[in-house]
Amino acid sequence: MAPATPQLLWAEPVLAARRQDGRIPLFGNGEETRGPFVRDDAVDLILKVVSYGSTGVLNLATGASATFRAVAEMVAAHAGRPVEIAPSPRRAR
Question: pTM of this prediction?
């Protein structure tokens, strides 16, 4: 099932897991946040960096962030079937 809108890069594993078995695994309770961006924006930036011959560290960010749980809940709400959001216990190393 292809998404109707561009996928968030860090959400793609969540989408893949949801498609395979109807389960979205989370690390801990999904409270960690990331700044999502659209794949097309990342591709445009990479092309500009390459064409200008830029070097060094590059950080692509939107200034907004969302928790992994919020993204999983959004995916589950639009799945069209039951989806389990499965937190996992954190383990000490």
Answer: 0.61
